[in-house]
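Replying to the earlier thread about multi-chain prediction with a worked example.

Input:
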Amino acid sequence: MTALLILFLTAIAVLFVGLKYRSLLQPLALIGTLLALGATGYDLFGPGFGWGAEYASMFRFMPFADAFSGVAILATALIIGLSGWGFRNLNSTLGDHYALILFSLCGALIMFSYTNLTMLFLGIEILSIPLYVLAGSRRDDPAGNEAALKYFLMGAFATGILLFGMTLVYGATSSFDLASISRAIGNGDQMPSMLKVGILLMIMGLSFKVSAVPFHFWAPDVYQGSPNLVTAFMATVVKTAGFAAFYRLFAIAFPGAEGFWSVPVAIIAALTMTVANATALFQKDFKRMMAYSSISHAGYLLLAVLAIGTEGADRALLFYTLTYSLATICAFGAYIAVAEQSGDGSFSAFNGLSTKQPLLAAVLALSMLSLAGIPPLAGFFGKYFLFTAAFAKYPWLIVLAVINSAISIYYYFKIIIAMYFTRLSAEDSAEADAPNGIVLPAGVRWAVMLGLLLIALLTLAPGSVYGLI
Amino acid sequence: MSLIFILIPFIASAILLLLRPAGLSRHLALVASLANLVATAYCLTCDYSQGMNCTFSVPWVASAGISFSLGMDGITLIMLVLTNLLAPLIVLSSWGKAFENEPRYYGLLLMMLGALNGVFLAQDGLLFYVFYELALIPIYFICAIWGGQDRIRITLKFFIYTFVGSLFMLVALLWVYLQTNVNGQHSFAWADLVAVPLSPEAANWVLLGFFLAFAVKMPVFPLHTWQPDTYVTAPTGGTMLLSGIMLKMGTYGVIRWMIPLAPEAMHTLNPIFISLAVFGILYASIIAVKQSDIKRLVAYSSIAHVGLIAAGILAWNKAGVQGGIIQMLNHGINVVGLFFIVDMLERRLGTRSLADMGGIAKSAPKFAALFMIIVLGSVAVPLTNGFPGEFLLLNGVWNYNFWLGVLAGLTIIFGAVYMLRAYGLVVFGEARPETANFEDVNPREFLVLGIIAGLVIVFGFFPQSILGLTEMSVDRILGAVQL
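Result:
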């Protein structure tokens, strides 16, 4: 709650400061997020503030919500760290950008802590509406406009379906409160068909939000068309929020009906990882590849929803979203530095990066290895915890997930191959030595180094986060 | 104590990769690998009669029953001797070459060394898996950055082959882990995993999962197709690491993890496994006889020798396992020597084709003599290091099944045929213009080859020095895991 207030006030302050003191914007936004991170940490590790943990049975900041808030706020802080450079070409709207990101983050925090379906709906809307604007923030770029329109239309459509589902669930259980819904469902042997349809519609709506197959069609275009940092935000914070909300809903409100919803969710998970991985193999553009990669990770993350009721499912989800977010942000940080300077986002832009810019290449290589889940990197432990949690219930799905992680090596390694193993032609090496090669702006350097440090920390001591909740 | 074997190489590797001290990298690599050798020598004096010694254990992910747990017995000790004895030689053999970005090469090499030591020391299932995979990353980079023609495609195939193979092992390991129950919690500790009784059906799957991982690594027919291309395209240091040490991760894994975890399924599946191993011996030997490329010939000979090691270990009797362990060490020594010789030939003559060689004995007598000793070790002539291991291995296979023993015995005949043929073509015959001025070994090369040739003779005369170290540990593991 404290973190939510801090973020909200920072966002408003940013809006006004942005009118006059543009150079203060990034430090202010960064300080706000770090304060919020500190407040979350105080609630999680320390004695806590002791107030506002619960509000009118609308939301409740338990360790679950605090830990996920920590992940989302940390990811946002890193993105803001990258932004000094990523947003440098914006002139009049810089303040709006920071404010919108922070408002969106407020929505994510609500989605981590809701105990009532209305708050879920509000959280999703608060998260999404700023993003519709951010996706189209490059107003003169047709691809950006296409992305924004697609995102808005699909998002609105998904929200409608979700809302329809909520209404039906309300009709069947006469409550919006998660715990009361769970009581009304009981052990799930007498579910009215209205409830079943409601749950199915909610699965569909949430699948749209987390871009699970077959509701993923908007994602590649939106990811590719949006400004790079907004894409990074969508791929990390939005995904974390979507899955935490998904998990919360099914773990608190619908555990009794598991026999009914587990089959469709399992099918969606299997489809998501397989289709996304198979499509990612054929991508030639980094951002588009990352879009499909993010969809495939959605498939793995659905395993956490399926593992509800197993010890450690929530911890696995937390660990996975954290490692996935860190690796994705590091990858985007490196990508922004490369693509914006060479003006090319295809894989060939990375050729010979290991000689031109060894640090950047190392960061990107480790992020790719972590995303591919190669031991001993943090991403491996994420996959490991997730797969173990769901293994007892769905052995066949785990085998499929393991095969899919093997397939994913192929496309993640394309980047590594381009950076390290592609020998430069004489002309290119001359260019690499030239002073106008790729420079690494200070903000990017600090953000990716911090991300890398955190990945290393999670690699050496996975238990530090896994044991949190 | 065990931790040192991992810490020294990793710290040195981090220094090389992060600080990139251009001129000093090879010296630092040599010092670090020699320090590990000294530590190994110290460990030779410890007592392993009571099971694991020099243990080190801290919880890693306590809530999931994963611990960072190391320890060594006689079997591990021989693997450490293998790794840390060969590492300085591999560093020295790369010494004379100019590499683009040298600190990166030696840094990756040391990272590999640390991971290999970790594989052999790990006493926790997940830790073993993590090191097993960690070893793959540096070698992939070494082969793909400094390799030869078509390296990107070949090394990616190698990576995906071995990675997918070990994923099956991970699933099998997870299955056993989920059956453990230590005070209400799952555990990855070796003893807890071994104690799990598996149903026959589950045991079959678990054994198969482990076998796929190790069979790819060794490699066993028909999962060997990545190997000849990778060996040929890799830089010599990489080939030495792969053939000398890395494939022993597979054979070691069979002894320590595969059979102890799922002995229930050995009766059903082992006949298939051993037959594949023996068939692979014959298959690789026949191909080796026909090779005209010397590097490829040594690669196929390696498949044949490792097939015999695998067959002997799978027979799971004392002769077979003892022979397997001693032969892992000796095959490592021989194959590193052979690949070093191949590298010298390739660098001096610019070709690997046997047809373009000949007459080197006149211009380079020292080279020819050292080459001879290593070849004799490789074909297992009595009083060289190859003999006791192959003898025990054949004895083990023979005890398991007479006819398999006979077929596996052909490996010695074939080995003599292809190795001596290659030796003859390289060293004897008419000198060609290119080979007439073949430069004899320089002091650094003499040091490397001399040490290897010395080891061939010493271990040939005193095999008991190794067998005595492992005997108690082998008895212990055979006693604990009865089929």
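The first strand of chain A starts at residue 54 and ends at 55.

Feel free to reuse this layout for your own posts.
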